[in-house]
Design goal:
five-stranded parallel beta sheet, about 170 residues, 2 domains, 6 helices, alpha/beta
Length: about 170
């Protein structure tokens, strides 16, 4: 099975990124977590990304705040999918990171999730890997069924509460 790289621009991003780590672990997807900076260690980021496919990675998740160039720098040096997580870390509430992550030039795509959306980044990475892994695809399908059943149960519970309220 291909690995997922989870790269963050700073250790201060880890509280958010930990959601992706937990999700990947729940699906049994192998991963590595590293800190690399698009601005402070650009050579390291470029080298890692350029060699990611050969090193067994199938997807890269990149989390960064403020100027948030990390995902774009990684995407510029690889052909494997890169998923950006804009981190809310400035007075602009993450809008700066969102725009920096999503506004890539033609030829350098970065799939971008919501601000601080690390769980969805991991699920998207799992979906990408599941295209060639039936076991992962089945786990994803089961999770969709579980979500559907969870909503149905909540609706059933709320109907009982409404009936109780109305019948008082």
């Amino acid at each position: 099975m291909k690995k997922v790289a989870v790269i963050m621009g700073s250790d201060s991003d880890f509280p958010i990124v930990s959601g992706a780590v937990k999700t990947l672990n729940q699906y049994g997807v192998p991963f590595e977590v590293h800190i690399m900076s698009a601005h402070r260690t650009p050579e390291k980021a470029a080298e890692f990304s350029a060699n990611a496919k050969e090193n067994g990675f199938g997807v890269i998740i990149a989390a960064a705040g403020k100027a948030a160039h990390l995902a774009g720098v990684l995407a510029a040096h690889t052909t494997i999918p890169v998923i950006g997580i804009p981190i809310k870390s400035s007075t602009l509430d993450g809008l700066d990171a969102l725009l920096a992550t999503v506004q890539m030039p033609k030829g350098i795509p970065v799939a971008t999730v919501a601000i601080d959306g690390s769980d969805n980044a991991a699920i998207l990475a799992v979906q990408m890997l599941a295209l060639s892994d039936d076991e992962l695809a089945e786990k994803l399908a089961q999770d969709k069924i579980n979500m559907k059943n969870g909503v149905a149960k909540k609706d059933e519970d709320i109907q009982a509460k409404v009936a109780e309220l109305v019948n008082k």
